[in-house]
Design a protein that fits this description.
By secondary structure, this protein is mainly α. It contains two helices and no strands.
Length: 43
Amino acid sequence: MVQYSTGVLTAEHINDECCKPPLSQRELEGIFLSILKREMRNG
């Protein structure tokens, strides 16, 4: 399982490199937490 801090850093890197313009920190955290919750439910 990926640690939360590693996942956040990865999400921030993808946001900086791939999203033009980058998402706000709030939007990025919301997406990340949504994915994390789904992964926890579905294993």
